[in-house]
Amino acid sequence: MLPVLAVLAAVLPGTPALAAPTVPTGARSLESVNYPGRYMRQGQLDPVSASSDAQTKADATFTVVNGLASPACYSLQTKSGLFLRHRDFRLRVDANTGDPMFRADATFCPVDGSVAGSVAFTSYNYPSRRIRHRDFALWLDPFQDTAAFKADSSFRVTAPWTPKTNKGPVIPGLFADPHLTVFNGRYYLYPTTDGYAGWSSPYYKAFSSTDLVNWTDHGVILDLGPDVAWADNSAWAPAVATRNGRYHLYFSGGAATGAKQLGVAVADTPTGPFRDALGRPLVRGDQFSGGQAIDPMVFTDTDGQSYLYWGQGVARAVRLNADMTSFDPAQVRVVTPAGYNEGSFVFKRNGTYYLMWSENDTRSEDYRVAYATGPSPLGPWTNRGVVLQKRLDAGIKGTGHHSVVQAPGTDTWYIAYHRFAVPAGNGTNRETTIDPLAFNADGTIRPVVVSL
Ligand code: FUB
Signal peptide span per the entry (predicted)? Predict the structure, then answer.
C-alpha cells in the first residue's frame, strides 16, 4: 500500500498541509476502500487477486500521469495506452483525441478519501461529480455528503498488479521534444507537454534526476497564457542554458493569429519560476524569410560563447550576446543540412562539433534523427547520415526531436528523444525516452540501439 498523501508531499516540496492530496505518478492500481480486493478495472470495479489471469491484472493497472487538461490534476492511462474518461457519466477507456473535451473528460482532480491514505477523484469539467462505483460499475455521480457515497468514491492507490517492465517512458505520460541537460551535476529534463490536438499545450514542466531513472516532477515552470503577454499556446520544444548563475529558457509560443515565435525566459534556478525576459519575442515569426521560428536550442562552447539554433524547414544559427537574450540579426546564418526538418541540436566531443536534427514530419512513423560534423559551432558541416530511427519489431515509431547529454566527468553519453507513445500513440501522443549514445573510434556516432 502506498501512503498517498505522504509520498508526494515529498515529491512536491512545499505542498501546504491542507492542499489537495497528490497521487504518485507511474504504474498503480486503485482498490475500493469498502470492497477490498476489488479494483478499478477499466470502467468496472472488479475482483483482482494474485491468482487472476494476466489480462485481468493488466486491465486493473493504470499509469497515473500528468492531467491531460491540467497539470494540477491527473489522468489514468491503461496498459493498452487508452485513458479513463467519462462519457454520459459512465467511466470507460478511450484513445486520446487531444481535443479539449476529451482531455477534460479524462482529467480527474484528487481530494481526500473517506479513510486515511485513500483518495477520491473529482471530475475536472464536472467538479461537483466524483468517480464512484455503483453496482460494481464506475460512474461519475454528483457528490453526496453521506458515508456511503464517500466510501463508494474512495480508493487506495496501491502497487500495480502489472509492474512496469519497459525502461521508457522515463517520465510517465505524454511528453515530447525532450531537452536533457546537466546543471551542477544533476540531470534536468525539459519537454513539450503532449497529448493536445495541434500540439496546443500552453505550459512547460521541468523534471530532474541523479540517475536518469528516478525523476522528480518540479511542476509548471512557465505557463504561456498568464506568464507571457505575446503567446498563449504551442509551448513547444524548450531548451535551457545557464550563464553567470542564471538560467535561460528558450521557448516557442503561438497566439490566436500570427506565426509561432521564439521567446526567452529567465530564472535563478533550473526549475524556475521563469519570467519572460524581454516582454516580446526573441525571434519574431516574421523576422526571417522561410521556415518557422520554432525549436530553439543553445550550445555553449568551451570558450563560454553561446550560440542559438532554431527553425523548422530552415535551420538558423547565430552567436548570442553575453546577456543570453539578444543577438545581432545581421549575423544570423542559414545552416540547413540536406534532409533537415527541425529540432537542431549541437554538442562538442573531442574537439569535433556535432549538428544533429530531425527529418520528416513528427506525425510520421519515419520521423528520425540525422547528424553532421564540423570544425566549429557554425560548421562547415559534413553530413554523416541517420543515427536514430523507428524499430518496428518493438513497436517503436516516430523517434526524433532529441537532445544529447554527457554524464558528468565521463565519456558516457545519452540521447533523449520522443517516440509515438507505446502502445496507441501517434504524432500528438508522444512519450520521452533515453538510450545510450555511443561513438566509433573515428568519432562518428553509432546507430542508436532503440529500446523499450
Ligand atoms: O512538439 C511540437 C513540435 O513537434 C516540435 O516543435 C517539433 O520539433 C515536433 O517535434
Answer: 1-19
